[in-house]
Amino acid sequence: MLHLHGARCPDPAPRYGSYPQPPMGAGHLSAEYDPRPSAVREARAEVRRQLEGWGLADLDDLADVAELLVSELATNALLHSASHFRLTLFAAHGILRCEVRDAGRRVPTVLDAGASESGRGMFLVAALARRWGCHQDGQGKSVWFELGTCPCTTGSADGDPSCRPGPSPGRQR
Fold first, then answer.
1. In the prediction, which pLDDT does 141 show?
2. Full strand arrangement of the beta sheet holding 140-148
């Protein structure tokens, strides 16, 4: 059983076998970026490349949503911590988990979408991610989100109890 920061992931039962999964040994990527504006574009491109390499880029809008949300987290890291940031991707058992770690201590908050030109990044994360959260440790924090890579984890099978691996943890903030 795979555990990501204490969260229970779907059981790797045969019913998940027919959905695309990353190749063995390729379910993890970690890359560090310098604190410069081009780093956000580089992180988005890396997400797309990695999902293509894992065969997950053609799943509905998974790559587009992952790129958008990573862009929001990377932008927050640059604006609020002005430090290097680390992008980490995990893909296993129907879940794509993206984390952005920076040296800042400020915990992200979800603001109303409203009409302002900024401050809507975490609103998008909360609206589009299956779950998200923030973990503080040492001299920084990791902000993460999860997206489903199969119908059993995207919410489309909510009404089908045979498709759910256990109690839904809901959104974590």
1. 94
2. 28-33, 85-92, 95-102, 140-148, 131-137
Query: How far apart, in whole angstroms, are the C-alpha atoms of residue 137 and residue 35?
Result: 20
Q: What is the pLDDT of residue 159?
A: 38
The span from the first CA to the last CA of the chain, in angstroms, equals 24
Question: Hunting for tokens 């909360």 — which residue is that?
Answer: 126
Contacts of 94 (CB under 8 A, 6+ apart): 9, 10, 16, 19, 21, 148, 149, 150, 152, 153
Helix (H, G, I), strand (E, B) or coil at 100: strand
The structure's pTM equals 0.72
User: How high is the pLDDT of residue 113?
Assistant: 65
53-82 b/e (C-beta count within 10 Å ≥ 16 → b): ebebbebeebbebbbbbbbbbbbbbbeebe
Tokens 């995990």 correspond to 90
- Measured in whole angstroms, the distance separating CA 113 from the mean position of its chain's CA atoms is 20
Tokens representing residue 111 in the block = 């603001």
Residues of the chain whose pLDDT is less than 70?
1-26, 113-119, 151-173
Distance CA 59, CA 56 (A): 6
